[in-house]
Amino acid sequence: MELRHLKYFLAVAEELNFTKAAEKLCISQPPLSRQIVELETEIGARLFNRNNKKTELTEAGKYFEKEVTALFQHLDQITSKTQKIAQNISGEFRIAYISSIYSGVISELIQNLKAVFPYVNFKLFEISTTKQIAALEQGKIDLGIIRSPIKSPKIKSQLWFQDGFSVVYNKSNLQINAEEEISSLKDETFVFFNKEYAPHYHEVLLELCAFYGFTPKVAHESNNINSIVQLVKNGLGISIVPSNIAKNNTDPEMGFIELKKVNLFTDVSLITAKEDESEITKVAVDFLLKKNS
């Protein structure tokens, strides 16, 4: 059975007239009749009742018409999706981000991309800066959102925004009314990012504490910003987090004091492969850049 047999069958089923169906298919009637006979022989069922006056579908023919019509509709969908993949607007797009980036922005990004590229399967990964760089170099992700300088000949980096820092504490355990009181925290227990997980960020936190005249007593470490905030909420210490976290935290138990006097910032950058010119990447980067313009 070949595809042409099915096309010829549908033409006859629609016209219920071999002469009209042949004209529609731009072939003569005898070859069309032979193709239908071949199809019926292969299936082992009569599809049409035909005489000199009219042509009708048999019950088997009606069922066959329904199923073949559905088959061609599915084939059209397959063809359309294949074309979209070939045009680089389908497939899979992998986005990595660090935990200190507000997830609401990431959610908005996915919603926007899904509206523009409905056939794409978007995947999100929370990965440290160091691992993101390695993953991008190896082609395991398509877009990364990192927090620190980057040096790689294979990667293109664009500054997304500069983020300041804020002290975070549990209001029931501690009261800080102004930035001038930060130096009094020298005897407090701190919760920091793990040094091995984010070495550059860890060093920046130490610099911040040095600016206010003390060395922090780090009792707990984590490689996830949300875990750090939760530890602080549970009364296990205080911490210094990106101001971006403070802006998006509405928990009434938590207090934040922005460190405005110190001239220290962390760059949040968007990274892509240097040779990546895909439309999806361009739309994703443009969307994020506009969110902070």
Automatic annotation (TrEMBL):
SUPFAM superfamilies: Periplasmic binding protein-like II, Winged helix' DNA-binding domain. Pfam families: HTH_1 (PF00126), LysR_substrate (PF03466). Residues 1-58 form the HTH lysR-type domain. One of its GO terms (molecular function) is DNA binding. GO terms for cellular component: protein-DNA complex. InterPro entries: LysR_HTH_N, LysR_subst-bd, WH-like_DNA-bd_sf, WH_DNA-bd_sf. Transmembrane segments: none annotated. Keywords: DNA-binding, Transcription, Transcription regulation. Belongs to the LysR transcriptional regulatory family. PANTHER family: LYSR FAMILY TRANSCRIPTIONAL REGULATOR (PTHR30346:SF17), TRANSCRIPTIONAL DUAL REGULATOR HCAR-RELATED (PTHR30346). This is DNA-binding transcriptional LysR family regulator.
